[in-house]
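Figure S4 source data
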Amino acid sequence: PKALENKEFTLHFQPQIHSFSERLLGFEALLRWHNAELGDISPKEFISIAEESRLIQPLGMWVLKSACRTLRKLNRQYRTDFYMAVNVSGVQLYADEFVDQVLAVLSETNVTPGLLELEVTESVLINRELRAMEKLNSLYRCGVRIALDDFGTGVSSMGLLKDVKITTLKIDKTF
C-alpha cells in the first residue's frame, strides 16, 4: 500500500507505430515498480497481488490520470493528436463506478475521449460478464477507444467480437 504513496511507480511509454507508414500514432502506458530494497519488480509479480488486494483500484486510477496528463502535455507541446493506450484490469472494469471514473479523468485532464484507448485482455471478458461488456460499450459510445488484447487465447474468441465494440484487436502471438 505504501508503494503508491512513496512514488515507487512510474510509467514508461511504448510508441505505437503505424505498420505501413511507420508514423507515430500514440503510446501505450506501461506501469513499472522500483522499490529501493527489492529493486525492479515485474508487473507479472505485482499486478495479480494488486488485483487480489483491490489495491489495483487506486493504482489503476493513478495510471489513468498520469497517462492522460502526459498525453495532454505531449499533444499540446507538439500540436499533435497522439492517443494513449492504458491497460485495465478486470477488477477495475467490474467496479460500479468505472465508467464515471474514466469520464471524470478525461474531463479533469481535458483529453478528448477518442484519444484514450482502454485495453482489456480477452480473459477479462471470457465469461461474457454482461455488466463489464456494457461498461466498455458505454465508453465506446462516448468515443473512448477499446482494445481487446491477447485475442485468441480464450474459448469465446470470435463470438466475443459481436458483443463488445472495439477499435483495436491485438492478436496473441500464440494464435
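Figure S5 source data
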Amino acid sequence: MVVLLVFSFAFGGASRMHVLRLAVVELAALPLLAIAGIHLQKWGKWREHKLILGILAGLIAVPLIQLIPLPPALWTSLPGREQLTLALTLSGIQPGWSPLSMTPDHTWQFFLALIPPVAMLVGALLATHDLRRHLIYLALGAALVSILLGVLQIAGGGHFYLWPATRGGGMDGLFANRNHHATLLLAVMPFAAVLAASQLRRNSSQGQMTLWLGALFLGLVIIAIGVVRSRAGVILVGPSLVLSVLAAWIASGRRRPGTAFFGLAAIVGVAIATVGIFALAPIMDRFDPDSPAEGRFENWPYVAEAAQSYLPVGSGLGSFDPVFRSIEPLDRLGPTYFNQAHNDYLEIWLETGWIGMALVVVFLAWWWRRSWACWRAPPSRTSDLQRAASVALLMILIHSAVDYPLRTETIAVLFALFAAILEGAAAPPEIRSRRRSEPT
C-alpha cells in the first residue's frame, strides 16, 4: 500500500493525456489487489464490509456491462443511438454487434483506472490501524512536498511543472490542475488537526509540541490554498477548517481550550491575514462577475439535456467528450473545449444513467451512516482518524460538484484510503467496546 500511494502521488496527478504514467500506477496496484483480494476471501473479512464492498462491486460492474456486445436490434433501440444508426445507414453500413458504450476504448481505460483505488480500498480494509496511520502521515508528507514544489513552480518562471498539459504560472504542485491540488490540501487538513490534537490526551510536553506543529501545518495549507486560487478551494477552506478543529477538539478529549488551542487559533488567524494581505486581490479576480463567462455553468444545461436523451442506460463511461461535441451548440464554440462536465454527478448521470446515480445515492447513504457512528464515538486512536476521514471525504464529494477531482488517480486512491478508514466505524459492538478502553 505504501508503494501504491507513493506511485499515485508521483505519477497519478493528471486525469488524461498521460496514459503511460497512469499505467505505471495501475501496474503498481496489481500485486496489492491480488494479495488483498485473496486474503479478504481467505479470512472471511468481506462479511464485515458487505455494504462498501457491494458498492465497489457495482462500480466495477458498470464499465464491464457497458463493454458487452449487444445484438444490432437491441443496440439500435437504445436511447441516444438514433443519429449514429442513421449515419451508418446513410453510409450503407449495417449496424453489427456493438457495446452499450459509445466509446468502448475510453470505457476500457476507465475500468483500468479503477484498479488502483480498488486495490487501496481492499488493502486498507485489511490493514492494521498503525499501517493506516502511517499511510496518512505519508499523505501529509506528500501534501507538504506538493506545496514546496508549488513554491518552486511560481518562483521558477515556468519550470518545475511535472505535466506537459499544465498551463503554468500557478501553484499546481504534483498535479496537472490547480483545482485538484486544492482538493488534496482540503482533504489532509482534518488529519493534520486530529493527529496533532490527539497527542494532548497524553498530557505531555510532546503533545503540546505536536499540536503546535499541526497548527503550523494548517496555517501553511491555508496560505497555500490562497496561492493556488482555486475558487472551490477558497470557498471550502472555511468549512474544512471548522470541521477539522471540531474533530481535533474531540480528539483532545473535549477539554477546555488551553494555551495550545489558542496558539492554533492565532496561527490560523495569521495565515488567513497573510492570504488577505498578499493574495486577496488575485483571489477576488477569480470571483469577478465582470470576468469572462465560466463555461462549465453555461454548459451544464446542455449536459443535462444530453443525459436525458441517453436515459436510462447512459452513453458509456469516458464518453463525455465526444458526446458533448455532438450536441454542443454552435454559439458555444470557441478557442477552448469542454473536455469534462466539471460536475462529476452530472457526468455520471450522462455516462451511466440511473445505475450510476443509484450507486452515488447508496454511497452517500453509506457515508452518512458511518459518519454518524464515528462522530458519536468517544475519542480513540481509531475513531479520531474516522472523523478526519469523514470530513476529507465530504470535501472531495462537495468539490466533485464543480470539478472532477476523482478522475485523477492520486485523489481516487486517497479517496479509497479514506473510505476504508471510515468503514471501520461499522465495527461490531464488541470491537467498539474494546476501543473505548484502548490506551490513548
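The chain has 19 helices and two strands. The chain has a mean pLDDT of 84.
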